[in-house]
């Protein structure tokens, strides 16, 4: 049960409005046509490797602060702020996603975003642990709804696309997600054995790979790459009930992501602002303000910057790890 719970929590951390709506999949994969499946395979393999890497790192540095101090030393302050900015961008993106949902279902966008922000505030200052328990139910539902909306994968016709760009884009996608996912694993992964970490990494990466493959093929086959929320557009063709369920599923994805990001950001900013409740309100209001940049713009352009932050962090860790092993070999010889 412990392993199953962690699998669900990792997937819950990975899911968000960008994935459940199909926007991230369209942006990072589908635009490359048939070559996008090459990116899906690469992303699945990279996701497995990085998840397992962070599980192993968590046994040495079981908190993010220890991780930063060990690998970045005095520069750790900068890394902390970089991660905080990345989390804030993700939070703003989720609020931007709520505006798209509101517009799609003909609800006042400001009111809908305000209600989302209020719900987030009540949970974060109340009991975040409730979300962890609810995730056990919500994550499987999100997976089922997404796969149902996408349907059976279709064979793709050869369309314009560049394999090299597909590889770069899919790699950036993985490193973008590892910023939040790696942080979560660092804080929670130390209590799992190597075998359990391996099982969790394999199962999670395979499930993510299947979702990416099925959703990517559906998006390309139905030519909805340019939609703000491709999977919601697909759902509209399957009847009103499925469309409503899909909209709720996307909102759940963005809501759980907002809570996770605001909770972590709140703890970080609370080092500088003593009143925790004021901190949470400030973060939510600023994220709502920045959401006006638009869901398409944030996912399509700003997310790439987060990917480069993740790339830098991982390569720094790998470089230091190899350096330590070389020193150990010299000592033994």
Which SSEs are present, and which pair or pack?
Elements: H1 2-14, H2 17-20, H3 23-28, H4 36-58, H5 64-72, H6 76-104, H7 109-124, H8 129-150, H9 163-188, H10 194-221, H11 230-235, H12 240-269, H13 276-290, H14 295-332
Helix pairs in contact: 1-8, 1-10, 4-9, 4-10, 5-6, 6-7, 6-12, 6-13, 6-14, 7-12, 7-13, 8-10, 8-12, 9-14, 12-13
Describe this structure in words.
The chain is mostly helical. It has 14 helices and no strands. It has helices at residues 2-14, 17-20, 23-28, 36-58, 64-72, 76-104, 109-124, 129-150, 163-188, 194-221, 230-235, 240-269, 276-290, 295-332. The protein is globular and about 70 Å long. It starts with a helix and ends with a helix.
- Work out the helicity level: over 70%
Number of strands: 0
> Roughly how many Å is the radius of gyration?
20 Å
Oligomer: single chain
Low-confidence stretches: none
Strand content: under 5%
Write the element-wise H/E pattern from the N-terminal end onward: HHHHHHHHHHHHHH
Note the gap between the termini.
Answer: 45 Å
Please report the number of helical segments: 14
- Report the biggest beta sheet as strand number plus sense, adding barrel if it closes: none
